[in-house]
Structures are given as structure tokens and as C-alpha cells.
Amino acid sequence: MTLAMLFIPAITITLISLCACIHYEALQRCNAMLPQLRLHNKRAKVLAAVGAAMVSHFLQIGLFAAALYFLQHYADLGYIGGNFKNTAFSFLYFSTETYTSLGFGDVFPLGHIRMVAGMEALTGLVMISWTASFTYLEMSRYWRPDSRKTARSLLIRKKAMTP
User: Fold this and answer.
1) Domains in the chain, number
2) Are the beta carbons of 49 and 138 closer than 8 angstroms?
3) C-alpha count within 13 angstroms, C-beta hemisphere, residue 159
4) For the Potassium channel domain, which residue ranges apply (predicted)?
């Protein structure tokens, strides 16, 4: 049994766990803070929730990028090929492309880090879905039409339709 066969699953499980914790904390804190924000426009609260989720996603992408950098440079468990410049920005680009499931186009993983990249795509799919669900709940809470305005507009429409 090689070191890679033990190390890659361990690092992958650690990354997925950290991503779930980061996202949970970001969304939980956002959910707790939104009712306390004194914003005149309730829709701005939904935008704040989306912003918090985006920060969480960016942190997760950065975490995977750092792990891929480590695995390529220090663990020698594969490398990223293609049009890849071996800079921090390139690792961040590759991680963003993978996390968002855009696919492997101009850069692609080779060697044992392919498993990490594949699990990053799955993690991104789950986290982005979680964000969509959270955003829907926040929109349901803050984007409800004002009941008085809705009742007034229904009354106006009813009068307009009556001959």
C-alpha cells in the first residue's frame, strides 16, 4: 500500500469536512445576524446573505487551491497540466473551475491529485446547492410582499375588472 493510497483519501476527507464547517458557520452566522441588520430595504438582507455565501465559497476554493499547491509541490502526488503557469493565481483559477464544475479545459489534474479535484467538484456542487436552498429561505423571509399593498392591489384589480 503506497503513501498516496492513504494520504489522498485522508486529505480529501479533511478538505470536505473543513468546507462543510466553513459553509455551515457562514450561513448560520448570516442567518442569526440578518434579522438584526437595520436595513430599510429588506431585499438588501438577501443580498447580504448572498454575499456571505460567496465569501464562504471563495474561502473553500482557496482551501482546495492551497491543498493542491501542497500536493503538487511538497507531496509530489501529481500536478496540474495544460496551460498552467504554476502561480497562486493559477491554482486559484483551477480550483474555481473545479469547484464550480466548469470542467477541465485548458488546465487539468494528472496523477493522484485527480481524486482531490474530483471530490472538489462534488463538494462544490453540494455547497452551491446548499447556498441555493439558503437563499430561497432568506428570500421567503425577506421578500414577501407587504400584505397591505397586496390587498390594495387586489382590490384595485377587482374593481377594474368589474363592469
Assistant:
1) 1
2) yes
3) 6
4) 63-133
Residue 154's domain comprises 3-161
CA distance 62 to 95: 7
Q: What is the pLDDT of residues 24-47, one digit of tens each?
A: 999 999 999 988 888 777 778 888
Is residue 151 scored above 70 in pLDDT?
no
In what helix (H) or strand (E) does residue 75 lie, and over which residues does it extend? Answer: none
Maximum CA pair distance of the chain? 84
Find the DSSP H helices in 34-112.
Answer: 43-73, 88-99
By DSSP bridging, strand 78-82 and strand 107-111 are antiparallel
CATH number of the domain to which 157 belongs: 1.10.287.70
What is the pTM (predicted TM-score) of this model? 0.83
DSSP label at residue 41: S
Rounded distance between C-alpha atoms, residue 98 and residue 103, angstroms: 6
